[in-house]
Amino acid sequence: MADDFLKNFKIPDYILSPEFKVEKSDESVLVVPECPVLVFVNSKSGGQLGGDLLQTYRTLLNEKQVFDLGENAPDKVLSTIYANLESLKKRGDEFAMKTMEKLRLIVAGGDGTAGWLLGVICDLELSHPPAIATVPLGTGNNLPFAFGWGKKNPGTDQRSVEAFLDQVMKAKEMKIDNWHILMRMRAPKQGSCDPIAPLELPHSLHAFHRVSDTDELNMEGCHTFRGGFWNYFSMGMDAQVSYAFHSERKMNPEKFKNQLVNQKTYAKLGCTQGWFFASLIHPSSRNIAQLTKVKIMQKPGQWQDLYIPPSIRSIVCLNLPSFSGGFNPWGTPNKRKQRDRDLTPPYVDDGLIEVVGFRDAWHGLVLLAPKGHGTRLAQAHRIRFEFCKGGADHTFMRIDGEPWKQPLPVDDDTVVVEITHHGQVNMLATHFCKSKSVYDPSSPRPDAEEDDSDEEEDSVAEEYRKFGAADTFRIPDDVDISHLS
């Protein structure tokens, strides 16, 4: 029975590798699998779990359809397989055509790993982009949780993997918004770029010259970076705690091989970093309003200033209803607030990003309440942060779980971070899915019609539409991909 079940997912060699040939006599007996899958595993995520999971998938499926991200860059894998599928399609191979139509991806790792795959899918512009299911192998696991795949590390035995495969086969496809992030800063007088020393940027942000030498949005005398995210961008004290955690894990990786231990360490660092006592320990110069000017675009071409209350020490730009291990900071505004402030429920495919603020960790604890939420600041199609010389020489930022320490201007310069809506990608969701679609009849619908921003997006340079995750970008060999969580 197990063999019959696994036939639903297995892909023959000739689909995966162009060097394999299938005889004409064999084509007639090939049965298209119900749910053909390609599996990508970050073998260094989740301690030993990543390696064990990789081995189980290779035992159950064709080992050529299961890839270790430490050894195989996903852009090269997908480029090769899709080129072969297109070649077979041109030769009239119906098995290959139907396989491509049904193909789904499984990615096992942290949120950073999932983001890497999503960026590659966007950049490759595949003829029939596959939907993605995410296996939670990180610490926060916000992406898997938002689509019903859970947030606890999974079992790695045959029974657990088969149960997950069954969920993948039954899962529904769901579109979610992509968000492009651009960061520009004046070139330092000393030090090199790629990244700017000693700036350690997340893997999802790439220097422009690594993406394209002809990039029109690069500016002379500046270092410009771009990338993408699918869950959130945050800045301030929450990112500071995350940075402390990642720094600790980088120095002592042997202490971070258990999800529960990781979460306890994270909570402890929240206390030691002063997140619970921000008003007493941290100067007002660390408040968001003192650090940056914020502009939002709610209608195409119309930028407006966004007021940030002076007590806000952390700001989150949220795409999915899952942050900090599964909380929804936006909540669901009541009808009066929706009417008065022109707010909507947090749909994941409406081209709007939710902007939420927090005063301190105590403020964040309101999310434990059934209807708890942060300070709702705005919803927008685009948002821009402008940092000028001020009382702080740095702040902390985070994209989908990957934090960094961002230097701020010391002269009459400006650091700019701009977030822009950038198309959509297909995800797989279970019936436990927390995310809501604006196209789902069961989701509450806003009264106001959405603004159509397609006209403005078409005018943006083609290079701006890339995440830089494919072809020109690969995680360096000396980087431990276990930190992609």
What does this structure look like?
By secondary structure, the protein is of the alpha+beta class. Helices cover about 30% and strands about 25% of the residues. Strands 6-7-5-17-14-9-10 form a seven-stranded antiparallel sheet. Strands 13-12-11-8-15-16 form a six-stranded antiparallel sheet. It has a four-stranded parallel sheet with strand order 2-1-3-4, sandwiched between helices. Strand 3, helix 7 and strand 4 form a beta-alpha-beta unit. Helix 5 packs antiparallel against helix 6. It is globular and about 70 Å long. The two termini are about 35 Å apart.
Strands, helices and their partners?
Elements: H1 2-6, H2 13-16, H3 24-27, E1 37-41, H4 49-60, E2 66-68, H5 74-90, H6 94-102, E3 104-109, H7 111-124, E4 131-136, H8 142-146, H9 158-170, E5 172-186, E6 205-207, H10 208-211, E7 222-229, E8 232-236, H11 237-251, H12 259-272, H13 278-281, H14 288-291, E9 293-299, E10 302-305, E11 314-318, H15 335-341, E12 353-358, H16 361-364, E13 375-380, E14 382-387, E15 394-399, E16 402-407, E17 415-429, H17 454-458
Parallel strand pairs: 1-2, 1-3, 3-4
Antiparallel strand pairs: 5-7, 5-17, 6-7, 8-11, 8-15, 9-10, 9-14, 11-12, 12-13, 14-17, 15-16
